[in-house]
Specification:
Elements lengths: L5 E2 L14 H17 L1 H12 L8 E2 L1 H9 L3 H24 L3 E5 L2 E9 L2 E5 L8 H14 L3 E5 L5 H10 L3 E3 L3 H10 L9 E3 L4 H10 L4 E2 L7 E6 L5 H12 L6 E6 L2 H17 L3 H9 L2 E4 L3 H11 L3 E5 L3 H5 L7 E4 L5 H5 L26 E9 L4 H13 L3 H8 L4
Parallel strand pairs: 1-12, 5-6, 5-8, 6-7, 8-9, 10-11, 10-13, 11-12, 13-14
Antiparallel strand pairs: 2-7, 3-4, 4-15
Helix pairs in contact: 1-2, 1-7, 1-8, 2-7, 3-6, 4-5, 4-6, 5-6, 7-8, 9-10, 9-11, 15-16
Length: 417
């Protein structure tokens, strides 16, 4: 049996848009409500029960503790964190520069756009089966680059490398908690850590549920479900590279979704042979085998069918291992992030080439993009009007009358000079 099941194009469906079930929502709601009511005591109790936080251990680590953890890392690790953070910051600064302020003349004055960063950002980094300093860098460095005055992080059972990443990112404190209790603490604030204006970062289903529950009180980034990779390949690809990329995705967890699309049956066969060989050598093969069964290898009749299947998936990560990727890229409609070129592996995006790796999953790429500095900015408008605004006021009065709002119309007419 092939590690990656063969599927007909008509069988391919995007992942369910929401990974949340009623029980998950109910459990998260109970924890969120408890933190909102009892504050730090509730966070500590849930962190002890679910994250294994020792009874007398500090719940919020200050910058000095993070700095000491960073100083205790091997030199190579410290330099790695700094290089990765720098690349993320460079890309984020370029994003920030692409959104500009402006003044636009209008009758009687000017209409203006101004940009203002959120004051406080909360950044979640998972700390379960994997240690993910990269996620902390992706979120906290981006928030800092956007101009947030305060950035707090949360991670259950943070390893030293995660604490070091928090130092490099310049966070103001790290909450030693995970799950719904951490999201609630970031949203509501606890002793020593104020309420945040936005909460971002990937996590398990309880993190996703808690973010959904606090949305409205605070901003959140995007729904994060199981990770996805779709590789589009033709005869020019290196089957070993493609197999390695699919396995890199599959080792995330049992629910990761790896996909391979091609117009050539020989490509599917070659990648399949490589998957078998590489799986035998992969330490995480037990997880990868399960994840591969949840994806598929799809033989498409032509480019049109391939594009349709790809857009139906709207994958988190889309990788093009084809002769002319640029020509294909312009015809694709839905994906979280695109990768191509001889070394254009999705894993290099995961680990800090520059663009953010917090991306939409479960088909959300149809209406959402990845985390960016834009999540941490407010686009605000100004309107300054004086003499000469009569035409605007007259139109406003007319529209108000059409909408049956005489008070609006009267207020507008007072400005018709």
């Amino acid at each position: 049996m092939s590690p990656l099941p063969r599927m007909h194009p008509s069988e391919v469906r995007a992942a369910a848009g929401s990974p949340l079930d009623p029980r998950t929502l109910a459990v998260a709601q109970q924890i969120v409500d408890d933190v909102a009511t009892r504050g730090v005591a509730a966070v500590r109790e849930h962190a002890a029960r679910l994250d294994g936080l020792p009874q007398n251990a500090p719940l919020l680590l200050p910058p000095a503790v993070l700095a000491r953890a960073f100083a205790g890392l091997p030199t190579a690790d410290r330099e790695l964190l700094q290089r990765t953070a720098a690349r993320i910051a460079v890309f984020a600064r370029a994003q920030r520069a692409s959104l500009t302020e402006f003044d636009l003349p209008v009758p009687g004055g000017r209409a203006c756009q101004r940009l203002a960063p959120l004051q406080r950002a909360g950044c979640y980094a998972p700390g379960g089966r994997a240690v993910l300093p990269s996620s902390l860098l992706m979120t906290a460095v981006t928030a800092r680059t956007a101009g947030c005055a305060q950035v707090y992080a949360a991670c259950p059972r943070p390893a030293a490398i995660v604490l070091g990443a928090a130092h490099v990112a310049g966070v103001d404190g790290l909450l030693v908690a995970g799950g719904a209790q951490a999201i609630a603490a970031l949203a509501f604030g606890i002793d020593g850590q104020p309420a945040c204006d936005i909460v971002v970062g990937p996590g398990n289903r309880f993190v996703t549920a808690a973010k959904q529950l606090v949305q409205g009180r605070v901003a959140v980034d995007l729904p994060a479900g199981p990770s996805e990779l779709c590789v589009v390949a033709d005869g020019s690809c290196d089957p070993g590279d493609v197999a390695a990329d699919l396995l890199a995705q599959a080792e995330h967890d049992d629910h990761a979704r790896p996909w391979l699309l091609s117009e050539e049956a020989a490509v599917l066969d070659a990648v399949d042979a490589e998957l078998r060989a590489q799986l035998d050598r992969l330490p995480t093969r037990a997880t990868a085998r399960i994840a591969l069964r949840g994806g598929g290898a799809v033989l498409c009749r032509d480019a049109q069918e391939l594009l349709a299947v790809c857009d139906r998936l709207a994958p988190e990560h889309l990788q093009l291992a084809v002769r002319d990727p640029a020509a294909l890229a312009h015809r694709l409609g839905h994906y979280g992030a695109l990768f191509f070129g001889r070394a254009g592996a999705e894993v290099l995006g995961d680990y800090g080439a520059g663009p953010n790796h917090v991306l939409p999953t479960g088909g959300a790429a149809r209406f959402s993009g990845g985390l960016s500095v834009f999540h941490f900015l407010r686009v605000r408008t100004w309107l300054e009007l004086g003499d000469g605004a009569g035409p605007l006021a007259a139109d406003a009065a007319h529209l108000a009358e059409l909408e049956g709002l005489p008070g609006h119309a009267a207020a507008a007419r007072r400005r018709v000079r």
